[in-house]
Specification:
By secondary structure, this protein is mainly α. The chain has two domains: 30 residues; 63 residues, no CATH class. The chain is 66% helix and 0% strand. It is built from five helices and no strands. The radius of gyration is 17 Å and the shape is elongated. Bound molecules: calcium ion. Calcium ion (CA) binds next to α4.
Length: 93
């Protein structure tokens, strides 16, 4: 009985690790669009509550908040002024 419980816990932890790995892989494929700018604007204006994933994706200056500075970075990326390297996104969390 104890072994089954232990096996169950190991399987749950394994599932969590696989889910997080898939999440990181999907983050590598992010390309910011106008929709992202609207999402960040809504977060800044408190029209919507930021999720943990929003902080991973949109807190680009890595200061723990999503604000106008992050919006500026995304806007510069969108306008091809300065692209956000994918490595920076992965390292941000
Ligand atoms: Ca920030």
């Amino acid at each position: 009985m104890k072994n089954r419980m232990l096996l169950f816990i190991i399987l749950v932890l394994l599932a969590i690790v696989i889910f997080q790995a898939k999440l990181i892989i999907s983050i590598k494929q992010i390309d910011y669009t106008v929709d992202d700018m609207y999402r960040v604007k809504d977060i800044i204006l408190e029209k919507t509550k930021a999720t943990d994933l929003d902080y991973v994706v949109y807190d680009l200056n890595n200061d723990g908040i999503i604000d106008g500075f992050d919006m500026m970075i995304i806007k510069r990326h969108f306008l091809d002024i300065e692209k956000i390297p994918n490595v920076k996104i992965i390292k941000s969390r």
